[in-house]
């Protein structure tokens, strides 16, 4: 793939639709469901942890595990029920979440005993494919490459809004993790603040590039795949069973900086990573996937990477974040990363 094509549709009321394709194409757009107003969304300050908490009650009403026939992310059908998706066909679609926790037009927050702020921001849905039954692991390297381009493009556009301080593209995969729609999709949250954890992460890059240094000198046994663009690796400090990172060799703020050639190579690494995760238990791995991009002001130093954080430690056991993890932030890990790397590399089998 040498380049990609975009089509933008302003759907009114601050709602946008971006369609991405490998070659130029036309779209047929039908009516879709209106947004569910999230006027009450706002931020509340946690006085002890000194970080923002987002309160958004409209999300309670969001669609929960509909049948495939009622999927709101499948292509629109003429004469069919209205859904979230206006396009009758698409390759990659990024559009404003109908149940946004945040809004560009957020109202005045309530006056409380703690500091509050308007819930300003953007929440997008990222559809990977028109095929309801596909997944990140099956859409193929070309489509992942288009996804990398689409996420980079959207990141760039969102960061042009001065109110946006941080953009997180992510995927929650699997019902085990609380996914409410089976259709293959991710999301993008654009926040008007830099979350405390992300600020801490970004601070690590101010005087040096610890991630770049680690990748340059990593134990080869922890490398699962590599090419000219980057590597797939099991981090020694992993907090989740089979945690897997995909890291470009060169420092960049976001996937918007990839060349067309690098995008294809990075996509091949992402495909390799998810394929290994699905193979390790012989079933789709539930995970969170974070596209760690630079917060505002850190674009020149932050080293973009993707992290898969799996939640399944064996075929019949899930990893739960319980008291120690939730209360202290200290993770207890059952599978050493060195062993996870052997299993993901296919050099050993899990005996649990
Ligand atoms: Zn669907």
UniProtKB/TrEMBL annotation:
Please provide the record's keywords in A-Z order: Carbohydrate metabolism, Galactose metabolism, Metal-binding, Nucleotidyltransferase, Transferase, Zinc
Q: Provide the binding site for Zn(2+).
A: 71, 74, 132, 183
Give the SUPFAM superfamilies listed for this entry. Answer: HIT-like
Single GO molecular function: zinc ion binding
Q: Which GO terms describe its cellular component?
A: cytoplasm
Q: Which GO terms describe its biological process?
A: galactose catabolic process via UDP-galactose, Leloir pathway
- Has keyword Zinc? yes
Q: In which pathway does it act?
A: Carbohydrate metabolism; galactose metabolism
Instruction: List, alphabetically, the InterPro entries matched.
Output: GalP_UDPtransf1, GalP_UDPtransf1_His-AS, GalP_Utransf_C, GalP_Utransf_N, HIT-like_sf
Domain Galactose-1-phosphate uridyl transferase C-terminal, first and last residues per copy: 224-345
Q: Where is the Galactose-1-phosphate uridyl transferase N-terminal domain?
A: 50-195
Identify which cofactors the protein needs according to its UniProt entry.
Answer: Zn(2+)
Task: Tell me where on the tree of life, at the top rank, the source sits.
Answer: Bacteria
EC number of the protein: 2.7.7.12
Q: Which residues form the active site?
A: 185
Indicate the enzyme's highest-level EC class. Answer: transferase
Q: How is the cofactor bound?
A: Binds 1 zinc ion per subunit.
PANTHER family linked: GALACTOSE-1-PHOSPHATE URIDYLYLTRANSFERASE
Please state which protein family the record places this protein in. Answer: Belongs to the galactose-1-phosphate uridylyltransferase type 1 family.
Protein name, per record: Galactose-1-phosphate uridylyltransferase
Q: Which organism is it from?
A: Puniceispirillum marinum (strain IMCC1322)
């Amino acid at each position: 793939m040498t380049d990609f094509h975009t089509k933008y549709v302003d759907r009114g009321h601050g709602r946008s639709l971006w369609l991405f394709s490998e070659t130029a194409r036309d779209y047929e757009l039908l009516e879709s469901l209106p947004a569910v107003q999230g006027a009450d969304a706002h931020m509340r300050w946690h006085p002890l942890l000194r970080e923002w908490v987002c309160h958004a009650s409209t999300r309670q009403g969001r669609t929960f595990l509909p049948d495939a026939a009622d999927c709101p992310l499948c292509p629109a059908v003429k004469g069919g029920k209205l859904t979230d998706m206006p396009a009758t066909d698409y390759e990659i679609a990024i559009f404003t979440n109908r149940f946004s926790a945040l809004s560009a037009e957020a109202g005045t927050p309530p006056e409380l005993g703690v500091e509050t702020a308007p819930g300003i921001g953007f929440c997008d849905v990222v559809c990977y494919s028109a095929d309801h039954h596909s997944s990140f692991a099956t859409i193929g390297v070309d489509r992942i490459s288009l996804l990398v381009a689409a996420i980079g493009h959207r990141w760039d556009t969102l960061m042009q809004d001065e109110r946006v301080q941080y953009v997180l593209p992510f995927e929650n995969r699997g019902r085990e993790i609380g996914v409410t729609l089976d259709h293959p999709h991710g999301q993008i949250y654009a926040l008007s603040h830099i979350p405390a954890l992300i600020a801490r992460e970004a601070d690590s890059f101010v005087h040096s590039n610890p991630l770049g240094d680690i990748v340059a000198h990593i134990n080869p046994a922890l490398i699962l795949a590599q090419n000219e663009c980057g590597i797939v690796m099991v981090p020694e400090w992993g907090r989740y069973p089979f945690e897997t990172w995909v890291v470009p060799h060169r420092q960049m703020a976001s996937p918007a900086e990839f060349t067309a050639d690098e995008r294809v190579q990075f996509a091949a690494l992402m495909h390799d990573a998810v394929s290994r995760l699905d193979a390790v238990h012989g079933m789709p791995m539930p995970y969170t996937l974070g596209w760690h991009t630079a917060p505002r002001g850190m674009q020149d130093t932050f080293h973009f990477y993707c992290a898969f954080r799996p939640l399944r430690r064996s075929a019949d056991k899930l990893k739960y974040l319980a008291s120690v993890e939730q209360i202290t932030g200290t993770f207890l890990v059952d599978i050493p990363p060195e062993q996870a790397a052997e299993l993901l590399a296919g050099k050993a089998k899990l005996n649990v």
